[in-house]
TrEMBL record, chains A, B, C, D:
Residues 39-58 bind DNA. Keywords: DNA-binding, Transcription, Transcription regulation. SUPFAM superfamilies: Homeodomain-like, Tetracyclin repressor-like, C-terminal domain. Residues 16-76 form the HTH tetR-type domain. It comes from Streptomyces johnsoniae. This is TetR/AcrR family transcriptional regulator.
Length: 213, 213, 213, 213
DNA sequence: CGATAACCGAGACGGTACGTCAAGTCTTGCA
DNA sequence: TGCAAGACTTGACGTACCGTCTCGGTTATCG
């Protein structure tokens, strides 16, 4: 028997309408007022919901944001390359690794430039930085699946001989998307398609192995 | 004539003791209770200072944290490699770029593992993500000088023929320290000396190799 | 035709077990946590009953308390002199009015000193003060019958020539029990048998007519 | 040295305007919406004051009501016979005890008939019934002084030979005003001037007559 | 005698108010 | 005037209950 958590509300009786309203309100509000002025009371009011309905189902503001993003991902599962792409999606694989990566990173740049997604992602980032539990959840549910897609594309390239057999693919992912993420978070330089291209070129060089051993 | 700010208190009459007490209290508290529970009132109380004394000299909690880190950097200016190293410091230059970078990144890993610095840096990161003005200040006063040191070391290697003339050194810095930063912020994997080494090796490959093969 | 209330539950199908459990829980809880912390949710939980079962049969918290006291009275109908004595009981009538009244008021003092009854009566008093409808119900169902018993005893004394024919017996009841009640409610002095005795002596004097016309 | 309470706010810096606004708002609101719907938030909002300002200076809603009534008493100190009469006031003393008492009790009836004072007094009564600490405060600060005035008048009558030397004057006060209070609280009969007169006549009989015949 | 309507337990829901914490502003009195 | 102290308004926190409203699951008549 699967162990049951006790004292928890019964998910079977959960109001789907309220859940949707809350996630939508959270997403809308974070885009309108930003993270600093985002409040649970505000979300509840906007969603036309009692505060307790939020506290009943989510442990923290961050968890709500997280679910809002998850819902967004599930909804927009057609956009294979989307940062919030669904689990069954796949990165493009035309055989040309560099070109494919550029396509994907340009799309990511596009997303992070959209003010609503920018606000949402920043808010979630703050929560993740602050709350290790949420960070773990994020790693498992959002970052994990996404990373798997990326790794799959790189493995495909590896099998095609475009990357060395001993390349650290995990690190490759960090280099490509991690750098992009830091640059965006710290606003250290404008995010452009050119920047994405440069990133891909340089990182791939590093992975292809020593040019001058 | 330098443009004058009006309605501002007179810095000449500022109490240095209070300033020091506030910065110390901020640093201590962020290490003890974390960012989420850090409050201006708490800092003022710990510093034995009126709240107004904080509001008089700093525009936001983030600005206090920022100054606290600046003070820390100034104080520990002997540690050339420290993330908080002073402006006149320099990165080690033994002629062996890879080894030097490993040394520096290992030191950075060390710092980010220290709970007090970890707390402080996370707190500041949150503020920077949220507040573009603070991000700009950070870029100018802390990240900028540090980046200059890093660029200097890379330029030195470039002149020594260890890096191509057309290598994008700014991007190199992003790849090395930016990846480290993301990994730390998201706790996506444990920060170790080995990870630092791997990072250096791979990134240098990317820079050394032909960008346009 | 007797007009029927519509939309009301069918009393025939009412669960007696639940009714008893609710009244018992209400009585126990008011004794344990006091009026201020008494809640319908608490009563329902303690009684192992759904909230709706309370709302279905009682219009307010006060009404529950009222019924709880009524049930108590019906249950303890042997104690003729009890404040919660049953309808068919009678006050003692030995022929000695003063002595009989002292007996009854001492018993009342005894009851109001019992912590559980004290809590219950205070709670009910609060509801009565606040809610005129409940006050009317109380007057009709609890205070009324009790008052009738008291009046009966006084009338008996009147017929025995122990009280003037024109004495206002209603006022006499107020003077005896009303004063006791106020003293108890306001805790303005300790409730003792001696106090009861003094009360009886003095009030009877007032009723026996002018000593110095 | 008088012992000082610690951790308490400094009364010297208290805002008199806020204090007045709160007491006025409490009095007005209790008259408008009644005790059941009276809330601290409501009082704060009506007074244009932060909730914390109420919690800073009063321990409970009852304490606010108490002070509101005290303020009312101090303000209306001219009305010597008022239930809220000031400490230096005195009951009328024309030499005719019965007439004087009728005058005073009629005035009390008048007050308790005023909807605003009725609401206020009911609210305070509920709090007093519930909270022994407030009951003690009430006894000391409001009921005590008032009772002293009443006792003074009765003592004067005693010296004039209108009451026996061994009459229990405290009980006399209970009989006169206590009965009135219970009748009012329980709404057991309409409060009229006639009722007040009857009460005075009967109670005085009890006191004048021989306690031990 | 099986359907079908009701009560019942449980508890999710939109709300109101609670009492607390902290934000940022303002005032007072000391140095 | 800078400062410590702290009272002020504001607003959000997370909790407790309110009274209403489903949900399945027993009963317990009635067709």
């Amino acid at each position: 028997m699967t162990p049951r958590q006790q004292n928890r509300p019964n998910p079977a009786r959960r109001s789907e309408a309220s859940r949707q309203a809350i996630l939508t309100a959270a997403f809308d509000l974070v885009g309108e007022v930003g993270y600093a002025r985002l409040s649970i009371e505000g979300i509840a009011a906007r969603a036309g919901v009692g505060k307790q309905t939020i506290y009943r189902w989510w442990p923290s503001k961050g968890a709500v944001l997280f679910d809002a993003l998850l819902a967004l991902a599930a909804q927009g599962s057609d956009d294979a390359a989307g940062a919030a792409g669904a689990a069954d999606a796949a990165l493009p694989d035309t055989g040309d690794l560099e070109q494919d990566l550029k396509t994907v990173l340009r799309a990511t740049v596009e997303e992070l430039t959209d003010p609503r997604l920018d606000g949402m992602m920043r808010a979630l980032s703050v929560e993740i930085i602050t709350d290790p539990a949420l960070a773990a959840l994020y790693a498992e549910r959002l970052d994990g699946p996404m990373r798997e897609l990326k790794l799959a594309r790189l493995r495909s390239a590896q099998q095609a001989g475009q990357l060395p057999q001993d390349a650290d693919l995990d690190l490759a992912v960090d280099m490509l998307w991690g750098v992009l993420r830091t640059t965006w978070l710290e606003r250290s330089r404008p995010l452009t398609a050119e920047y994405a291209d440069l990133l891909v070129r340089t990182a791939l060089n590093g992975l292809r192995g020593p040019a001058h051993p």
